[in-house]
Amino acid sequence: MQRHAGVAIGLAATVVTVLLGSSTSGHTAIASRFTYNEHLFPIFERQCGSCHVEGGVAPMSLLTYNEAYPWTQSIREEVLGLRMPPWKAEDGFGDFVNGHVLPAHEMDMILEWSSGGYPQGPRDQTPVATPSTADWALGTPTVELTWSEPFELDAGTSETVRYFVLPTDLGGDRWVTGVDVIPGSQAVVRHVSVYIDTTGQARAADEAGPEAGFAIGGFEGERPIAVWWPGQSAVKLETVGYALPSGADIVARVLYKKTWITEGQAFTDQTRLGLHLTEDRVGTIEHMVLRSPEEPNGRELVFSHTFDRDVTLLGLLPELAIEATELQIEGVLPDGSRQPLLLIREPDPGWPTRYWFDSPRSLPPGSQIEVTATLRPGADRETVPSLFAENAPVRLLLEYTTGAGAAN
Ligand code: HEC
Questions:
Q1: Residues 6+ apart with CB under 8 A from 13
Q2: How many angstroms does the Cα of residue 52 sit away from the middle of ligand 1?
Q3: Class at the top of the CATH hierarchy for domain 143-283
């Protein structure tokens, strides 16, 4: 993100407005049919407000006119460049329960408003943002877990990953049907992924140092059961879940990241996890990782996997450690027909997202999952930390159940 450009443009816009403002009786060119108060505020609140709110993870609030209008140029660039909002799944390709796409007509309104003089609209219709409540999105959880002591993010650290081990002591086997997250420090908890560790390896890593948590992952079976960031709705399952054997540990991996606004400040975080559990035996969700080859074929990295049994596909978590312009995932059924699963333009490794199908996809034996990443010309390999301990240039975590009728 071009922060310096953003600031410069922000200031320039302020100056322009102040100049125009001094002659408002004259010729301020308002070419936008849409105003902030009437049309833009509801879009900003719904699509951007989980982060662009006072004290949020983004560098500025967009929830009042005075906070939003200095950023019009930058908003235009980010929205046109498909960098903001960070939810990436293309509408009408797969359909997912979590996250929100910026619909084309909302993008049009943002663009017209920002280039058309960004009018504020009727003053008597000044909107007020609904205060966010630190409430569990999925309702009261079965158990609540948090760090044994607050984590200190010191003033000099801009970005760091920390794993926290949260022991469970439930006296029996359980299935996890939902994971909720309430960030402790909203300004710096960029994303949280949650795991089940049955090996004790994470606990050993934690106990090796005096402070809460540890810095480098790498426990066996490091496969997230949830990935959260602000605005991602949590998913509650009915007939399937993740097996949580008696005594297993929950592990949370947190990316703490500051913006140019919060740079240089110290923060304390004690994020809370809410687990929804059931004792009833439900369909167990399995994980599988597909890896791309190291070397592209021309500008593409293509790879696939064929299932030899019935699977019901529930979710997809792609990761790219190479610059790509597009990532497409399709199911190829035994009769050769194709099912669109996920299409992402301008994938951004900074916002790892688990895409959870609205209705699970049943794939008969012999079906194939085909992944195509279109690389940017001259694309470089990047070191993008993986949420599931993989290092191929493109990797895909599949979540599924096996056997017919195992859908949620
Ligand atoms: C999930 C959180 C999130 C959502 C939702 C989100 N943003 Fe952002 N946005 C950020 C963060 C964080 C940054 C700072 C850059 C970074 O660190 O990635 C940012 C940066 C920006 C910037 C650049 C600011 C600068 O410093 O130059 C603009 C403009 C922007 N966002 C606009 C939007 C708009 C408009 C929406 C909604 C349509 C939106 N964002 C939705 C998190 C979010």
A1: 69, 70, 71, 72, 73
A2: 7
A3: mainly beta
| pLDDT tens sequence across 201-236 | 999 999 998 888 999 876 777 899 999 999 888 899
Q: What distances in angstroms separate CA 185 from CA 54, 59, 106, 148, 230, one per listed residue?
A: 13, 14, 30, 16, 12
Query: What is d(CA 213, CA 152) in angstroms, rounded to the nearest whole number?
Result: 11
Predicted model pTM? 0.90
pLDDT of 84 above 70: yes
**How far is CA 46 from its chain centroid?**
15
Cα 402–Cα 406–Cα 408 angle in degrees, nearest 5:
125
The answer to whether 176 touches 277, Cβ cutoff 8 Å, is yes
- Domain map of the chain by residue range? 3-88+96-125, 143-283, 286-402
Tokens at 330, concatenated: 């399709």
Q: 286-402 has which fold?
A: Jelly Rolls (2.60.120)
pLDDT at 244 over 50: yes
Q: Ligand 1: distance of its center to the CA of 71 in Å? A: 11
Q: What is the dihedral of CA 51, 55, 60, 62, to 10 degrees?
A: 60
Mutation choice for ligand 1 from 52, 54, 73, 77, CB with most ligand atoms inside 8 A: 52
